[in-house]
Amino acid sequence: QVQLVESGGGLVQAGGSLRLSCAASGSIFSINAMGWYRQAPGKQRELVAAITRGGSTNYADAVKGRFTISRDNVKNTLYLQMNSLKPEDTAVYYCAASHHPIVVVQQNYWGQGTQVTVSS
């Protein structure tokens, strides 16, 4: 089993920045790809950014150029640096971990979520 704990959410004004962290513990040797998802009220959960074990990344079009995903395999922590935040970025952000090389294919573990609210 793997446990994921997110932190770093909060309230920020439009144009501001936040950095989310996701600390992994447990059977971390089994983790391959990881990613950040978000879910806004009344909407489906969507992929924001993903990263492979080797560090290859991909992003949703809505966040390209503004968000950066990274992972520290020594600290077993996943990060999401969010800059130039917009009100439409408001959502609960979830960390996901996968045994699969591609996180969108399979998500085996989820964090509890952290709220990000961007005011206009």
Written account of the structure:
This protein is mostly beta strands. It has strands at residues 2-7, 10-13, 18-26, 34-39, 46-51, 57-59, 67-72, 77-82, 91-97, 109-110, 114-119. Strands 2, 4, 5, 6, 9, 10 and 11 form a seven-stranded mixed beta sheet that branches.
* Tally of helical runs: 0
Distance between the first and last residues' Cα: 40 Å
What's the shape? globular
- Class by SSE composition: mainly beta
Mean pLDDT score, rounded? 96
Briefly characterize the structure.
The chain has no helices and eleven strands.
List the helices and strands and how they pair.
Elements: E1 2-7, E2 10-13, E3 18-26, E4 34-39, E5 46-51, E6 57-59, E7 67-72, E8 77-82, E9 91-97, E10 109-110, E11 114-119
Features:
120 residues, mainly beta, four-stranded antiparallel beta sheet, 0% helix, globular
